[in-house]
Amino acid sequence: MRFEKVPGKKSNHHVKIYTLSTCGWCKKTKDLLKSLDIRYEYLDVDKLVGEEKNDAVEELKKYNPRCSFPTMVVDEGKHVIIGYNDDQIREVLR
Question: How many domains does the chain divide into?
């Protein structure tokens, strides 16, 4: 799986987001991270096919068994934020 990297000046956390390309909440999450100038990586799961998609879903299930989007994984699972939650995102990433 190849996560897309988004540059940012703040990189004190490792942030990965599992998203869908058509999800409005996923877009809001990405926009919030950009506005906070956070470096992050994302994976649009709906754009994957075959084994790569299966692998992404299995990896996502480790953090969010319901496989809902967006799912943000911070510092290799130290924090997992499911859905868009502005306050929680800001709290974890400050």
Answer: 1
